[in-house]
Design brief:
By secondary structure, the protein is mainly β. It has one domain: lipopolysaccharide transport protein A fold. Helices cover about 5% and strands about 45% of the residues. Strands 1, 2, 3, 4, 5, 6, 7, 8, 9 and 10 form a ten-stranded antiparallel beta sheet that branches. A hairpin with a 4-residue loop joins strand 2 and strand 3. The chain is globular and about 55 Å long. The N terminus is likely disordered.
């Protein structure tokens, strides 16, 4: 079982080189909830009430999570909440990815992630906001729209993407002196 790999979404859109903490996929998944229901006949697990899923640095909170497994053992996750939240460390950098939506779905078979209703993903100061965010992890293609597919976006519905440019480093080995704030002051050497 693997958790929603949401951290890849913003990294793709903002052209950020780092992705989610790679070691997380090899770590155990720990779930906490007020209620657990496992149905072997339908291959469905339902977690309800203050659901918290963790796997390494990944943490997801939701009101309800349903995990269905198909005949080929692929899983489909649906998390709902007010809102569903996630947080995960990015690989090889000291930054975290965070996201929010009213509903999040991930399909292992198609490698598709979908965030519904007031969806937002951010990393550092970069941010993507829309009513619907989808990310095809196989093709590495993201789409942000004012409404989910098949629905008409409300009038004036817009998506928002904020990308903060990376600071350019000075030439290797040459540190640039800081720009003076005001004209240099001469030391007062005279006695008054």
């Amino acid at each position: 079982m693997r958790l929603f790999p949401l951290a890849c979404l913003l990294a793709c859109l903002a052209a950020l080189p780092a992705t989610a903490e790679k070691a997380d996929r090899e770590k155990e998944i720990v779930t906490n909830a007020d209620k657990f229901t496992g149905d072997d006949a339908t291959h469905t697990i339902t977690l309800e009430g203050n659901v918290v899923l963790t796997q390494g640095t990944m943490r997801i909170t939701a009101a309800r999570v349903v995990i269905k497994e198909d005949a080929q053992r692929f899983k489909h996750y649906t998390a709902t909440g007010t809102p569903v939240t996630f947080r995960q460390k990015r690989d090889n950098v000291d930054e975290w990815m965070e996201g929010f939506a009213q509903r999040a779905e991930f399909d292992e078979k198609s490698d598709m992630l979908k965030l519904y209703d007031n969806a937002r993903v951010k990393s550092n100061q970069n941010e993507i906001t829309g009513q619907f965010i989808s990310y095809d992890m196989t093709r590495q293609v993201a789409e942000v729209t004012g409404a989910p597919p098949g629905q008409v976006a409300p009038a004036g519905s817009r998506v928002k993407v904020i990308i903060i440019p990376a600071k350019k480093d000075a030439a290797p080995g040459k540190a640039e002196p800081p720009a003076p704030v005001s004209p240099p002051l001469k030391p007062d050497t005279g006695v008054k």
